[in-house]
Design goal:
5 helices; Ferritin
Length: 196
């Protein structure tokens, strides 16, 4: 009887270990897939941010976008380092979410007149991008920690903090300057129409 019980316990323990191991493998695959996704997204942003800065009129917004471009270029390099640390070839996988966010930003820039209203639209589009990146990097940090990849988690956490700071900078620009200018421009436009 004792042998039977011991065998059952060993089998149960072995099954738990196997299940935990396969779950970890699945999480690792999800982690790597998510890294490929954000790698594509960051590379796409290195092309989109200059276009946004070119369409902006606010000096503060232009400088913020240009600064974030420099950060994004470094983030691409950091992601390549992460791939190296986990012994996976750095490859990008098309990120449907980022593609949609960039497409929306292009649409906003096309459908608004040059000036504070377009600047407000660019900020809104850029903040959507930042929120996506914050969610992604937060998840990647958690995955890396769970997988015991502490060095990788630290690298990704650096990028997460940069994304949070970029979002705060955009919020400050919107609240302190651009949204008020956009409101003033809209009021001036309405007054001109009323005079006609």
């Amino acid at each position: 009887m004792k042998n039977s019980k011991t065998n059952k316990e060993e089998a149960k323990s072995k099954k738990a270990t196997t299940t935990k191991s396969s779950v970890a493998e699945d999480l690792r695959e999800l982690f790597v897939d998510s890294l490929k996704d954000i790698y594509w997204a960051e590379k796409a942003l290195t092309k989109a941010l200059p276009k946004m800065a070119n369409k902006a009129t606010s000096t503060k917004l232009i400088e913020g976008l240009e600064h974030h471009l420099t950060e994004t270029e470094e983030q691409v390099k950091r992601l390549a380092e992460v791939f190296s640390l986990i012994d996976v070839k750095a490859r990008a996988k098309k990120c449907e979410a980022m593609e949609g966010l960039i497409k929306e930003a292009k649409s906003i820039m096309k459908e608004t007149a040059k000036g504070p209203v377009r600047d407000a639209g660019i900020i809104a589009a850029a903040q959507k991008v930042e929120h996506y990146e914050i969610a992604t990097y937060g998840t990647l940090v958690a995955f890396a920690k769970t997988l015991g990849e502490d060095d990788v988690a630290a690298i990704l956490a650096t990028t997460l903090e940069e994304e949070k700071t970029a979002d705060e900078t955009l919020s400050e620009a919107a609240y302190n300057d651009i949204n008020f200018e956009a409101t003033d421009a809209e009021e001036d436009e309405n007054e001109e129409e009323d005079e006609k």
